[in-house]
Amino acid sequence: MHNLGETRSSQRSNHLLLTPDTFVRSPLPGMTRCTAVVHVGPALGAGFAEYSVEFEAGGELGPVSVQRFLYVLDGALSLEVEGKRSELAVRGYAYLPQGCAHRVVATQTSQVVVIEKAYQPLASVDPPRWMISNEDAVSSHSLAEDPDLQVKCLLPDQVTFDFAVNTMVYQPGAALSMVEMHVMEHGLIMLEGGGIYRLGDSWYPVVAGDFIWMAPYCPQWFGAIGKVPAKYLIYKDWNRHPLAGTQHEPHR
Ligand code: UGY
Ligand code: MN
Fold it and tell me: Which atom of ligand 1 has the smallest separation from the CA of 232?
């Protein structure tokens, strides 16, 4: 059935909603037997890049010179770092610091979220080390004392990390307790369920598979709708002074 040019995807100055019907696949340098859907990057003003990768068995990512975060949506990865090989299953994730040589190979047909960002070092604080874990091993906490809204912080609570990646699970009917407006930007992948996302002055129905980018200060609110919990994976820049990276750098 022809969709006659209709889509839920929307691009505005302070946000982007990309739904799977509008995904365009492309190769990235060094990739073999896999393809990327680039969701956001500096082309839209973002300070990071986020893309999904669809691997054939044996497919491999190319190298990168910045920090890389991987989260396995489906399938399994073999990750080699410093001569050590680890398996990443579904909900497995890895943090690879800037300059850390590694190999990422899919051991079966797989789907993986990749987040990449240039590191903003802090004077007198060592950069983070690489880490591998699984979301199932991370404990959750309530947001704003609402037991129906659970957050898992996948990276350690240490100032050396210049970004955070969290999962958020909303029971049906749960919602953010406020419209947030903050300096951090977000990259968000809906993993399960759905609901209504307020972005700027628009309200969008969203479901698993959708991607959202929120620019700094984009007004944002979410309420879960349906009979199953809604879950998303969310990136934000974190732990850095607002003048970091400018000519007014406060911590050199
Ligand atoms: O961490 C956050 O800023 C998060 N509460 N934002 C969001 O879910 N849109
Ligand atoms: Mn937020």
Answer: 8
The angle formed by the CA atoms of residues 42, 233 and 218, to the nearest 5 degrees, is: 50
For residue 229 the two structure tokens come to 């919990």
Pairing of strands 84-88, 146-153: unpaired
Of the candidates 198, 203, 201, 207, the one whose C-alpha atom is nearest the C-alpha of residue 230 is 207
> Cα–Cα–Cα angle for 80, 84, 89, nearest 5°?
60
**Ion ligand 2 — residues with CB < 5 Å:** 180
For 43-81, what is each residue's pLDDT tens digit?
A: 999 999 999 999 999 999 999 999 999 999 999 999 999
91 touches 111 (CB < 8 A): no
pTM above 0.90, yes or no: yes
DSSP letter at 174? -
